[in-house]
Amino acid sequence: MMEKLNPFYKAMTILITGILLSFNYSVILNMSLFVISMVLIFGFSDAKKSTVAKILIPVGIAAMSLFMAGFLHSGTVQTPKAGTFTSYNFSAMTSAATSLYNALQLSTRVLSFAGLGLLFAVTTKGEDFIFSLMQQAHMKPKFAYGILAAFHLMPNIAKELDDAKLAYRVRGVRLSAWSLKPFFAVLVNCICWSENLAMAMESKGFDGDDDRTCYQIIKKGPVDVVFAIVTIGYVLSGMIFFQF
C-alpha cells in the first residue's frame, strides 16, 4: 500500500511533518508518530523486515544515548543543608522529574524523525522518486537523468575502487587505510564515464531543455491527498492537544 503512494507527495508530506516536529516538544506526539511509522512499514509495505530491524539497531542506540545524557546532565544538583531535608527531597524529586522529561523529549525526538525517514526510504524506489520529481515537481530532465546516472554508477565506482586497491597490492605497494591514491584513479574513470554517457545521450537525441515524454507515468490520486491531509492534520492536532 505505501509503495503505491505518489513519491513526490509522500516526500513533501514527510518533509512538512518533519518541519512541524522541529517546533514540537511533545513526548506523546513523537512516540505516536514513531509507532505509526513502524505499523505502516511492517504492516502495510513490502519492505524487508530484517533490513528495517538492522537499521533500527543504531537508531535505538542513539535514542538510548540521548536519553541517558538528558537524564543525567539536564537536572540541577543541590547539596542538602542541615535541617532542610524535607525541602531538599521535594527539590530533588522535581529535578529528577524534569530530567526524565527532558530525556524523553530527546530520545523520542530521535525516534520520530528516524521513523519518518524510514517510512519514506524503505517504501520508495529511487527511480520512481526521480520520475515523480520530473512529472509532478517539473524538475528539468538533465538534472533528473544526471542523478539517475550517478545512482546507477555507484556499484561500478565501488568495484573500480576495489580494483585500484588490488592493483596497488599486486605491485607490492602498501597503502594505509586513509590513503587517497586509489580514489584518484576512480575519479579519473568517473570523469571518463560521465563524458561517455553524455555523448551517448546526445547521440540518441537527448536535449535537457525540451519537454520529453516519459515511458513510466507516475500517477497521483485522491489517496495521496488524503495521506497528506491526515498526516499533517494529526501532527498539528498533536501539537495543540498533546501537552506532555
From TrEMBL:
Major localization class: membrane
Domain of life: Bacteria
Regions crossing the membrane: 12-43, 55-73, 221-242
Membrane topology: Multi-pass membrane protein
Swiss-Prot/TrEMBL keywords: Membrane, Transmembrane, Transmembrane helix
CC terms in the record's Gene Ontology section: plasma membrane
Localization of this protein: Membrane
Protein name: Energy-coupling factor transporter transmembrane protein EcfT
